[in-house]
């Protein structure tokens, strides 16, 4: 007769608490900082936005907390440190799975997806020296499609969710593509100075939309701002704000 798995092995709280390699939570980390360090970090609130897929768009934008909450400050003028681009998550690299070809789809690059997500995580780790919120475009299928590549955004998001959960250095959020495109239209991106490239940069531009939209939401709702950036919660607790 087989032995049962020890309960302590499946106790999520115990596993996390007793893991010697566990990264501290954001709250634990920020609690160790000096007041001046907390105030310095408030100057670099950063959003990393992603439009996941075979070609994944990525955008990084930063803002000073004081500019973010100041309604008199035009948001697009306060954002700084803007970088964006597109990452191959299987569209060009890797080897297509045989099962995808057999099903009549365009194929899916399993190794390309894994490598692309590793690159994204590497970028986020580099950026996360600042308080960082990661925004991922949510993918809700609205058509019947049997090809494996159709669900690449789902697989890429799942891979990334796991890595970011282990990292524990960022908060993660979802946004609907329709909301981003309606609020941050091409015309508005051009007006704000955030429109670069043409058709071939469309995924990077969609990531830009999500980053700007997130900042707009955080300005509108202070409770969401504290959730997205626990450093704000810590500064509030210390009565620094």
Helix- and strand-based class? alpha/beta
CATH architecture: 2-Layer Sandwich
CATH topology: Nucleotidyltransferase, domain 5
**Order of strands in the sheet with the most strands?**
3-2-1-4-5
- Sequence of secondary-structure elements: HHHHEEHHEHHEHEHHHHH
Taken together, the total number of domains comes to: 1
Output mean pLDDT. Answer: 89
From the spread of the alpha carbons, the general shape counts as flat
Radius of gyration: 20 Å
* Helicity level: 40-55%
What is the number of E strands?
Answer: 5
Distance from first to last alpha carbon = 61 Å
CATH superfamily: Ribonuclease H-like superfamily/Ribonuclease H
Oligomer: single chain
Are there runs of 5+ residues with pLDDT below 50, and where? 97-106
């Amino acid at each position: 007769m087989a032995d049962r798995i020890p309960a302590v092995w499946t106790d999520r709280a115990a596993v996390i608490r007793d893991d010697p390699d566990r990264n501290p939570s954001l709250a634990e980390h920020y609690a160790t900082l000096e007041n001046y360090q907390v105030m310095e970090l408030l100057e670099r609130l950063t959003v990393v936005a992603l439009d996941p897929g075979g070609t994944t768009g990525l955008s990084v934008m930063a803002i000073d907390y004081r500019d973010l909450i100041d309604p008199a400050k035009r948001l697009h003028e306060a954002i700084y440190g803007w970088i964006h681009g597109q990452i191959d998550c299987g569209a060009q690299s890797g080897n297509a799975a045989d099962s995808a070809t057999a099903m009549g789809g365009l194929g899916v690059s399993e190794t390309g997806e894994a490598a692309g997500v590793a690159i994204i995580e590497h970028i986020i780790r580099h950026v996360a020296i600042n308080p960082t919120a990661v925004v991922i475009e949510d993918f809700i299928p609205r058509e019947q499609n049997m090809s494996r590549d159709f669900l690449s955004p789902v697989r890429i998001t799942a891979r990334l969710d796991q890595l970011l959960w282990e990292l524990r250095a960022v908060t993660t959020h979802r946004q609907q593509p329709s909301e981003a495109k309606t609020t941050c239209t091409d015309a508005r991106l051009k007006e704000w100075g955030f429109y670069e490239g043409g058709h071939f940069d469309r995924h990077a531009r969609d990531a830009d939309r999500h980053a700007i939209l997130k900042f707009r939401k955080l300005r509108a709702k202070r409770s969401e701002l504290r959730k997205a950036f626990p450093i704000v919660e810590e500064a509030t607790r210390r009565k620094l704000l």
